[in-house]
Amino acid sequence: MATAAPATWTFEEAIDRVGLGRFQYKLMAICGAGWAADAMEVLLISFALPAIRQEWKLTTAQAGLLGTAIFLGMLAGAWFWGTLSDRIGRKLGFILTVLIDSGFGLLSAFSPNFATLVLLRALTGFGVGGTLPVDYAIFAEYLPRKQRGRYLVYLEAFWALGALVAAGLAWLIVPRVGWRPLLAISALPGLIVFWIRRYVPESPRFLLVHGREEEARAILRQVARENGAPLPEDIRLVVPPVPQVSVGDLWRRPYTRTTALLWLIWFGISLGYYGVFTWLPSLFVQRGMTFLRSYEYIFILTLAQLPGYFSAAYLVERLGRRMTLGLYLIASGIFTYLFAVAVSLPAYVAAAIWMSFFALGAWGALYAYTPEAYPTQLRTTGMGAASGMTRIAGALAPTLGGYLLGVSMPLALTVFAAAYVLSGLAALSLPYETKGQPLADVVGELR
């Protein structure tokens, strides 16, 4: 009697069979905790900046350089860790990046002078820049296609939690004991996350694409057991062909238009977001508020980010990624402009709340679309390169904001509003929708 041949599945079929369960929930918590720690490291300088300027008598240009330093490090980190993780795997970057950003973040609290603080913030950024593309790639590769978009936005929501904690700590700590304890305390969660991340397995999708089918099947079975959806023992996974790839493939068909538009979107959203939020405490102080009162309002604005994320998570599976991203970016621009021209405090705060709501929802939709736009071979390279545009814009935004604010606050905010709107139009022009589509594995593979 003939023996039945083993079932042969694509990786997409296997991960859909494994489904969404306990393993992905734990992975989201682990990735999310790292994201929250990263948000604290990126945003806390803006909360601490008024106190740092006061202590060291910094000029506007020096304050802008301090805000820029972490983004220069993030640019190097995004390109380095993104490319490395497509070559040697996701796990090394997944473990080390959070250690680098938290370790140097902690050392920042003990900076003896301005120059040392700038250097340590740049080194902190080198870790943060790598965490972002690597985390999204590994999480996306463990998700079934039906839930992928929504859960990628949920992961981005942890950024808002980190921002909320950073704002709350700044509110409680800086006016009372200064900025150094804020930097030290904010680094501790990342050091804890480092120890937990060591136990997360390598992406089975990466292993499969690199011809390591047996290891990929073993990890898939581990995930399946944890989710209560065991796989047949005799399954075989289709191993896709693995041509040589490079960063240049991002600019070859069929990715040319996608890459150009995504780089424009990442640059524009970052210019708008960091241009406003780096200077937000100073903007409130400029309106006549005390440091303590400004932190209270920033805490409220940060709370508005959470429903922004959750609404985007709902809409990316209803309207699709492109439409949600485009609409949220354009709305971010509209409310940033209203924030610029508001004449009363209630209108000023209301516009800022809606600006925060839509801007962070747009970030969530962008982080859902980008890893889906590239194949496994180029996923972290594509994420790293696109997020590198964020670092360039993030490095420019504090300095540009400092210069423009010296001329006119409405002028500065109008420029950043325009960056949001142009990014929204680019999002609506993206060549294809990724909602409900399987992830591609090799360069040139179309959905």
From TrEMBL:
Residue ranges constituting the Major facilitator superfamily (MFS) profile domain according to the UniProt record: 27-435
Record's keyword annotation contains Transmembrane: yes
Main subcellular localisation: membrane
Subcellular location: Cell membrane
MF term (GO), any: transmembrane transporter activity
Gene Ontology cellular component terms for the protein in this record: plasma membrane
InterPro entries recorded: MFS_dom, MFS_sugar_transport-like, MFS_trans_sf, Sugar_transporter_CS
Membrane topology listed for this record: Multi-pass membrane protein
Transmembrane regions listed in the UniProt entry: 27-49, 61-81, 93-112, 118-139, 151-173, 179-196, 260-277, 297-316, 325-345, 351-370, 411-430
The entry's keywords: Membrane, Transmembrane, Transmembrane helix, Transport
PANTHER family: SYNAPTIC VESICLE GLYCOPROTEIN 2
Name of the protein in its database record: MFS transporter, putative metabolite:H+ symporter
Taxonomic source organism: Thermoflexus hugenholtzii JAD2
